[in-house]
Model the fold of this input.
Amino acid sequence: MRCNLGQEVGYSIRFEDATSAATKIKFLTDGLLLREALVDPLLSRYSVIMVDEAHERSLSSDVLLGLLKKIRKKRSDLRIIVSSATLQAEDFLNFFAGDDDSIGKIISLEGRMYPVDIHYLEQPAEDYVERAVKTVFDIHSQEAEGDILIFLTGREEIETTIEMIADRAASLNPNAPRLQPLPLFAGLSTDQQMYVFEPAAENTRKVIVATNIAEASVTIEGIVYVIDCGFVKLRAYNPTAGIETLTATPVSKASATQRAGRAGRTKPGKCYRLYTELAYESLPDATVPEIQRSNLAPTTLQLKALGIDNIARFDYLTPPPAELIIRALELLYSLGALDDFAKLTKPLGTRMAELAVEPMMAKVLLTAPSFGCLSEILSIAAMTSLQGNVWFYHEGQKKAQETARRKFAVEEGDHLTLLNAYHAFVTKGKKEAKWCRDNYLNYKSMTRAVSVRNQLRRYLERFGIDVSESLSGDGVLRAGGPDKAEQVRRCLTTGFFAHAARMQPDGTFKTVGGMTLHAHPTSLMFNRKADWVIFHEIMETGNKTFIRDISRIEKGWLLEYAPKYYNTSR
Done:
């Protein structure tokens, strides 16, 4: 519309708002629109709401559709557009209209697609990363020009693949066309993500190695060849253990089709599936909706705050399993967000719903003033919201990175180490990116942490909480001595008690539910001794389950701060 961003056209994402009073068209995440409904339950400032990529069945978009259906009963003037790339249009229409044909219409817009040849493996691949790299060089030596897009499951695989391609490309004939491998995953800074959209240099073929972020969210010009590993990392919540993991799972047929389609945008293309045709036939038709495999505590808290008390009777596109709802209610009850009648507690529950962080961290933030460590917890909350890409390293510099990190390291674990890194950044590194480079800290991430922290501070200020800063000197452990560090860890336990584990003689950890976990190699608790710990994040890689952002705690604190969750059997 040829206007300045933030004027007639703007956007709003978590912790960042680029809109103004003049904004007529606003792009925002489904999660953020749900948050807006807390303040304006009928979303009265909008006359048209369009939910895009609805077929991805994300948790927020499913809940949003249920909410919009409710709002429509009160606002017949509201126009709702649901757009989806796959043929589930009937399901969406039936959800809103039921038997009433007059309510909605299905409009089909055929995009222009060029034919894509699909190639399968004759034998299953033992290692799809190795096979993907081999396929890149086969394409490069035998096929016409055009960029390559590889679908893998996560950051570690992507970084390994890029290294392997770069290593092998070095032995190509110097006069042959070059290969330029580029990563694309959610944890990258915006600048790094933008590289994939730049046209390749002359005589160079781009190889973009991506997660499923490239399946529907972005379109990259010039892709002619797609290599599909056939897997995707999906969130899966285990209600028995009370733990949400990221696990590599076979893709659905719908996803495989979406991936192949990326090769036919500008001219005929080819898709190389790193699995057999038989394996493709046995794939599920569609991915299991997120609502049926997620920790529903954040969603339950939001629905309660929206005044939807009967969570089980809410109109879901696909209802979640009962045990997920029960587990969410249990966790929120033990966090103190719900009372004995499953009603939101005031002020704790309502404030937890308003904070733009997970319920566990929301509880920690709201408890911090009583432990006298609000400044520290604000910094830790900001640092842990960055999805683990605070530290960076270049190949061959692992030793130097370790030494740099040791400067900030605190015996008690990762949370206090992150706090020290944040504190050092705001006192020394904010002015110069060089300081960050020397200390192997990601400057972009650190700047983002500062802005997230300011936002969280403003939320707490709105609740009337005293947010005057207590940090002094140049590090957490000198700000009031060792007791401060203990207060921080005690405070973290009030929210993360459900993420507690005990170290075993072999160095692994076991949860109370008996699940075996390993400290992630990037954690300070890797190869360190501890008795009990709490952790922030959990992920599965291969056949191991790793935990990240780990801090030591005392077993007694679990009983002290979570008496409704734990009891001891003598």
Q: What stands out?
A: The CA atoms of residues 298 and 358 lie 6 Å apart.
